[in-house]
Design goal:
The protein is an alpha+beta fold and 77 residues long. The chain contains two helices and four strands; from the N terminus they run βαβαββ.
Length: 77
């Protein structure tokens, strides 16, 4: 997948790096834009939804394909 402003490949990174990198990437996006995050850290299953709830962002979708999880986060506010 392309690693640009709207895509983040966080595979190979362990907690808390996927969430920290997603937070930084979301800062560059406008409200309403989405960020697609790929992660393979087992903790991301808990960390990403928790981050979205705490930060007020919308978790549009969460899916997994084997060990790789794909999250789509919509920036709010």
């Amino acid at each position: 997948m392309i690693d640009d402003a709207s895509h983040l490949d966080a595979t190979g990174l362990l907690c808390p790096l996927p969430v920290l990198k997603a937070r930084k990437r979301l800062q560059a996006l406008a409200a309403g834009e989405t960020l697609t995050v790929l992660a393979d850290d087992p903790a991301a299953v808990v960390d990403v939804p928790h981050f979205c709830a705490e930060a007020g962002h919308e978790l549009v979708s969460a899916a997994s394909d084997g060990v790789v999880q794909t999250y789509v986060i919509r920036k709010t506010g």
